[in-house]
Fold:
Amino acid sequence: MGLLTILKKMKQKEKEVRLLMLGLDNAGKTTILKKFNGEDINTISPTLGFNIKTLEHRGFKLNIWDVGGQKSLRSYWRNYFESTDGLIWVVDSADRRRLSDCKEELHQLLVEERLAGATLLVFANKQDLPGALPAEEIKEALELDLIKTHHWLIQGCSAVTGENLLQGMDWIIQDISSRIFTMD
Amino acid sequence: MAAETEMEADEQERQNLDALGEGLIHEEFKEADEVSNIISTLKDIYTDQIAVEMALERFTVIMDSYQEQPHLLDPHLEKLLGQLIEIVRESAVPMPVIHLVFKCLYLITKVRGYKVIVRLMPHEVADVEPVLALLAQQNPMDHETWETRYVLMIWLSIVCMIPFDMVRLDSNIKTATGEVKKPIMDRILDVVKIYLNVNDKALDAAAYCAARFMTRPDVKKKKLPELMDWLVQGLVKADTSKMQGVTAMRGELATLAAIFKHGKREDVIDFAPIVLEKLGECNLREVNNTILRKLAIKIVQRLGLTFLKFRVAAWRYQRGSRSLAENLALKGLTPAVAKPTMVHTKLEDDEEEEFDIPDEMEEVIEQLLNGLKDKDTIVRWSAAKGVGRVTGRLPQELADEVVGSVLELFSLRESDAAWHGGCLALAELGRRGLLLPERLSAVVPIVLKALAYDEKKGDFSVGAHVRDAACYVCWAFARAYDPEEIKIYVNNIACSLVIASVFDREVNVRRAASAAFQENVGRQCTFPHGIDILTTADYHAVGNRTYCYLELSVFVAQFPEYTKALIDHLAQVKVNRWDSVIRELAAQALYKLTPCSPEYMANTILPALLPQTTGIDLNTRHGTILAVAHITQGLAEWAQENGKKITDVVDPSIIDGLKNIAKTLQDAKLFRGLGGELMRRAVSCLIEKLSIAKMPYHNDTIIDCWQEIIDDCLRHIEPSIQAAATSAIPAFFSEYHSLPDGSPKPEFQEKILTRYLEELKSIVEITRMGFSQAIGQFPKFMLQGKLKPVLQSLNHAATVMTDKDKTFAEARKEALNAMTCIFHTVGVETDGSPHSVICKENIHEQFDILFVAMGDYTLDSRGDVGAWVREAAMCALCELITLTVKVNPTLITAEITKHLFCCLVQQASEKIDRTRALAGETFMKLLYHSPEIPNIPHKEELLQIFPWEEIKGLNWAVPSDTFPRLTKLLSVPVYCYSVLLGMTVSVGGLTESLVKHSGTSLIGYLKSLSNDAGAVQNFADVLIKIFKDYQKVDRVSLPMLKMLDQLLTNGCFQVICEDESNTFPMDLLTLCKQEISRSGAVQKLLASIDIFCTLLQFSSETKKKALIQLMVFLCHRYPIIRKTTANKVYEALVTYEEVGPDENLDELLTLLSETSWDDEVEKLRPMRNQLCSLFNVPPPVMKKQPMKES
Structure:
């Protein structure tokens, strides 16, 4: 029995889930994370960095990784102890101009084999802004229906009001846990 | 791990992780129906062993694939279990079926875990009797059916929990024998006690069952004290020096552990002190059995938890509010409240501290702490969990004492196990918030020490597990503490983690460290240049150790926070590690890091390392010599870039010190013995690097000393030492043996050349090799005016074979390699002087020599060692011809090109894959060379057969790819002889795939010619010529016989042999006879029998001669020849028509098959002569030599 085995067992016991939060810049990733964490969301500048936050929800321990503005993400997919269980892809629903960029980035990411099997939650953020596209249209624009390799869900939300954030998280946790955890 | 190479470890690591990550692949339990079908067939197949095995095999494979995601089985479990149980419940089911059912139940249980399965087993009153009855029927010793007993025991553990008073189940009806049946409660206990003493998995189930049973209120009242007594008595009595005692004790300990886990605190607390006391008496720490020690630690932990009431330590450290739902509910209204504040709560009212701690706790904690030092990981881990759990229930002062005791484990007096256990405990405490931030100032330095833990043990060291665990602690701390608490330690932790992730010897530690670093960057956000480093030195990048040392280290060192720490670590720790590979890498890394901090290197590191270069410890000497050599080179290069000299940046005392290293070592006789090998390599490297650095030692006596050392190394038996010396030569000679104008110092050149060339004639092969390599490395000026004698000596060494040195294939190879290097060094000039360059005067001689070397077929016990020589010769030829064609293609005569290409196609058709590959690649390179090689014979055909587009990716080592093309060359007359000569060796060879592919290609080619009698005749002529040329040369002639047999049996020569007057069969016959005359080589004789028999199909004259020869064989002195001949002739009689007179055929066949050809020759001769007369051939007469036929 090596350390790896011990850690694996612990992940099961502690019900830990590793989530990677990604998306184009200014999509609202850090705002969502701050909101999750109950922090003040009024002072946010563009993130160039990397933040891990741990939150508890429905008996699960969520380790949420916010990787903002970095070119290479390879380093975050997998390390010694853990692999990524879920992806939270955040979209600025009001930024119509960059939706095709957004689509390409997302599809490029999903072919990465190290992310195989990870559950995908798309947050169509900024629904509170006038002119924001509804989730259904974002789904079309991102061609989510083409994704067969991952379980996915799109959820319209607003990081500022907190609307629908919980619903999205409930779904991703439910999906991941059915895949990797033993339920009692 | 220590014994594994990096690559293997890396690979294994990758696989482990992939199993972990990509192992989670199932979406659902797809095979549910298949499994159900298997179960339903069990009753029908149980008598058919094969069907049973196949069913079980399939069942196992399916189940095992869900080992990683067992919960996917859940929706189907009820149905599957129901199906299985139903079979058991049927009446009159044969026992083998029952066993099969339980095997399946076990496989499911193994995957899903007994805790889940047990709940799904039926547990009604009606089940009690059948389960007990089934158990009673089992033989506890039958090793083939243990699954049945295990699962039954698991089943019993739930059946025995029926919520009715057990007494009500007991009947008072007497059995046939008139006894009253024992009460159920007793029967259950009896059977459990039996199984607590068995040596298989049923024991674990029995322990679990016992503990569950004891939690029943009725049983608890009546039986618990009794059982406790029984267990404790058993413990004390057990003799752990015997297997039986160990087994018994395992059962008792497992039961106790389970009872204290499942039992209610108030029910078991009264027993706790006595159990602890008796456990202490058993002195289990000294027991050799790991399981027993682990169980003991487990019990101690449970006892501790029994003594202390459950509570959450109010004083524990917490990091902010972490509930997602609560945080979202805040609606962002009150940021101040939501901000994660340190809730390091210490309740004002200290009433919590009031409860008293039993005295036994001291013993419990001491045992747990001791468990941390255990020699086995599982015991340490169990102890660490125990420490964590128990500490959580202690009041703060006592808990702090526990932390203090854990920290005491990290002492140099303690073993690596203690350090490892200590790390696990620290991580466990940190995770639970029991390690208060006040303690960090003591804990962090200790963890950092553990991160670099490496204890020498003999000629290796231990500690990778400690370092790995220390990474885990850093990782756990990153999650546990708020950045504020860690802030002051950040730089130290960051440096240590970075060092571990780029410089640790083991890949798992590097990866663990990089993961811990990542976690710290993400959670603490205060690690300097964290993101840059973690995205470069990530999980993937740190996998390759060389890359870590030479590339990643340079990247990290550019950040000033890390530069010195990295350099210091290499210079202080890594250069004297026990693994020489690490020392070498460390030295190279120091070279790479020199430009990052040249002053520090020159003024601090070099002076610190220098005294160690001549110290006592061999590893340190080796590492530091390499280190100073590399650093000096780095400094010299840095100085040059900045317009300075090495003397400007390094103190004169250092310059002097570096100079004296070699001399000091020589005077101390440190070049001798085992350590001498390392010293020689190190000093060779030192000489090379100091020469590159242009150290001001010109005309110093040290140069003679160095020369002496190098010459000595060249003579050394170890190739790696020769190689080290050889690589020092170019720089050393150029710097110290030349005059400022670039010409050689005359006295040096003369002296050295005379000595070196003399060594080429040494009677020691390895010496010749060493000096050949050295001469190959000579800089151009050393050969100036002396090329003639040098080439002469090399030519001699490469081709001339005397009795003394005919087996020196490797020496010849090295001489040829040296020639290749020299061609390259001096170059070709058409009208140049033969004393200095290759020119029209000496080039043809060189070609001739190389062609001679192409015919080197030296054999020794290793096989065709001449192949090395031929390969070296091919390289030399290629080098020479490509150099020449660029200067003056007319120097290359048609004869040379033809000879060269014939040689290449021959080598490309021979049997050694490696040689064939080299020949093929050289052939292609020259065929498509630019500028064009002149006079390539039949170039157009070659280009057609080997078109670039199809050939460029061809692997010449693969017979199936190359031979089909090579056979096409047979139709080109110039190449026919060479290709066929090469192919003979392949077709008649030994390797199956080679023989198959080359043979098929050749036969296919001949078949394609079948209508072209002229072409076949040409081929036959070449064949005969080769056979003649290589008569009695076994290397070719034996394969030739084997090849001929294949060709003849395939009817390849049918078209020419239809003409009775064709001499081909007769020529073959004659050649075969000559080949075997006076030969005692059995292989060859056997091969010739085949040929003679196949010749029986031809014209009467040939047939007659062949028959006579075969008749001679029938009385050969070797029985195997006689027997084989009889068999083959028999076969020929049946296969070919008109071999013998038809009327005698039956008699011939009978005589051949019924005679016992093992008998004495004298007895056989009459039969043989009878055969002769039946065949109408004259019987052979004894020749003069008596040995021929007796």
